[in-house]
Design brief:
By secondary structure, the protein is α+β, with helices and mostly antiparallel strands. It has three domains: 190 residues, no CATH class; 99 residues, Beta Barrel (Thrombin, subunit H), CATH 2.40.10; 124 residues, Trypsin-like serine proteases (Thrombin, subunit H, Beta Barrel). The strands form four sheets. It has a nine-stranded mixed sheet. Strands 16-15-10-11-12-18-17 form a seven-stranded antiparallel sheet, with helices on one face. A hairpin with a 6-residue loop joins strand 2 and strand 3. The longest helix has 25 residues. It starts with 5 loop residues before the first strand and ends with a helix. This is Protein FAM111B-like. InterPro entries: Peptidase_S1_PA, Peptidase_S1_PA_chymotrypsin. One of its GO terms (cellular component) is nucleus.
């Protein structure tokens, strides 16, 4: 009904789908597969204007919690009461053009609550698209596990796009804060208030600042983060020619086109509820990634019963604009090698979706120096590209010391050096066991980018991004050479075949 009057859909007996065009949520009598909440509520085709002016309340408690119209039915309990409010001429929710309309099982989602009473610094700030939402206590928000808080609120459609760098404060413990880039996995069934920053950013306070000035400052900050302390100036003076080559190599359109085409074969690896990484298609349905993603998840080559692995392709844009597709991996790995830190997965076939082409024919040798570029999913985010340069073995020690020079105090630097030595950084330094066996470089791609392909300036893949040294402050990263990995993969396959044949001969 209009004007905010509720329509209750509590029992199937009270309302018939044929005469009122409504059905009970979670009523399997009418829908075999889970669908968005509003599709279940209305039997007729939903008009966009109607979609935007509806509020859906879950439960009988007076104006307790409301969900978005695209709320997944799988998250609504059996026998749950659903109350509809229709506000004529009001826009409550921004209709999202969701490319991926897949509704997952309940345990794939994290469902949490945002208090309509804002937290710190929100008294003069509008948080929602319509003030009518403040008549209710909570906005119930959902997100697929692995999604960030910011992505979940953007997907929701009821929050303003101008929230900026907000945080969430826990209603039970206001001092416990969740940043907008944190994943929603740990927020399930918790309630929060939106909290805004104490001070505006400089870019907002000074609207007269030119775009050119901002670009200059941003560029310098990026370089200083990559080369802290006075190492930034040293890098400019000592290596301006090298940086120019990197810029030239990865700013030419034909190179970018090649990278983007090959990037379609790069995927986000999701070891469900455990960790995330990156991988890429070798050939057919075989995907190469890092073995350490499966530490504690396998027995031999078999994934543990509770472990499921997915490969997401085309995850190039954040939700709701994203248009990714995914495959499940077989429960038995084709190969896993902890020494060279690689694993080969086989994707389950899907008649409706083709696996992107393999990159095996793009393999190249490990360069000792020169330009490089990584494509991956750092922190489980959308696909990113990072141009960098290879650090030769004889220059790695200086690169590390340049990075540590920002600490200034010698005792702190010595402490950091000892921490790096404990992590085994000497192995990749000049004279170390792996000095000539890996490619070293600096990159912003840390956690979640393990398994990313590393390209040279000619578009050949020479390495798989494997790890780095340093904890929260990464100092140097490295990649294992692909030709070495593939050679070991072939040897392992041959040994496996001979082992099977040998067992057949001995035990026919």
């Amino acid at each position: 009904k209009s004007s905010g009057l509720p329509v209750s859909m509590e029992t199937q007996e009270e309302f018939s789908p044929s005469d009122l065009n409504v059905v009970v949520p979670q009523s399997v009598h009418f829908y075999e597969h889970p669908v968005p909440c509003l599709v279940i509520v209305f039997r007729t085709k939903i008009r966009r204007s109607l979609d935007e002016s509806i509020i859906i309340q879950l439960g009988k408690r007076d104006r307790e919690s409301v969900v978005p119209t695209h709320f997944p039915c799988s998250c609504i309990g059996d026998g749950e009461t659903v109350i509809l409010y229709h506000y004529a001429s009001e826009k409550i929710e921004k209709v999202q053009e969701q490319h991926d309309k897949t509704i997952h099982p309940k345990d794939h989602y994290s469902v949490f609550y945002i208090d309509t009473v804002g937290g710190l610094k929100t008294k003069t700030k509008e948080l929602f698209r319509n003030k009518i939402l403040k008549q209710f206590k909570f906005l119930c928000v959902y997100g697929v596990k692995g999604m960030t808080v910011e992505e979940a609120l953007k997907q929701d459609g009821r929050f303003l796009d101008s929230l900026g760098e907000f945080k969430l404060s826990d209603n039970e413990n206001p001092n416990r804060l969740t940043v907008r880039t944190q994943r929603v996995d740990s927020l399930h069934q918790k309630a929060f208030k939106i909290r805004l920053p104490l001070n505006k950013r400089e870019g907002v306070e000074n609207p007269t600042t030119s775009i050119l000035d901002v670009a200059r400052v941003s560029g310098r900050k990026w370089m200083e983060s990559r080369f802290p302390g006075d190492s930034y100036e040293k890098a400019l003076n000592r290596g301006s020619e090298k940086f120019g080559k990197i810029q030239q190599s990865f700013s030419e359109v034909h190179r970018i086109k090649k990278l983007l085409v090959m990037g379609k074969s790069v995927c986000k690896i999701n070891v469900y509820d455990i960790c995330e990484g990156t991988g890429f298609v070798l050939f057919d349905r075989f995907v190469l990634t890092n073995a350490h993603l499966f530490r504690g998840c396998v027995q031999g080559k078999n994934l543990l019963d509770q472990i499921n692995v997915y490969a997401l392709f085309n995850y190039d844009e954040p939700v709701p604009e994203t248009n990714y597709f995914y495959f499940s991996a077989e429960k038995t790995l084709i190969d896993i090698d902890m020494e060279l830190d690689f694993a080969v997965l086989q994707l389950k076939p899907d008649d409706n979706v083709k696996v992107p082409p393999g990159l095996l024919d793009r393999f190249g040798p490990l360069p000792r120096n020169g330009e490089a570029c990584l494509i991956g999913h750092p922190a489980g985010s959308v696909k990113k590209i990072d141009p960098t340069c290879i650090i030769e073995p004889e220059k790695r020690e200086q690169a590390v010391m340049d990075h540590l020079s920002k600490y200034k105090v010698k005792k702190v630097i010595l402490k950091k050096v000892n921490e790096l030595k404990d992590q085994g950084i000497d192995d990749i330094m000049m004279g170390g066991e792996k000095a000539e066996k890996v490619a070293a470089y600096n990159t912003f791609m840390y956690h979640g980018a393990s398994g990313s392909p590393v390209f040279d300036a000619h578009g050949q893949i020479f390495g798989i991004h494997t790890g780095g040294y340093g904890m929260s402050d990464r100092v140097i990263e490295y990649a294992h050479p692909l030709l070495t990995i593939f050679e070991k993969f072939v040897i392992n396959l041959i040994e496996m075949v001979f082992s099977v044949l040998f067992s057949v001969v001995l035990f026919p």
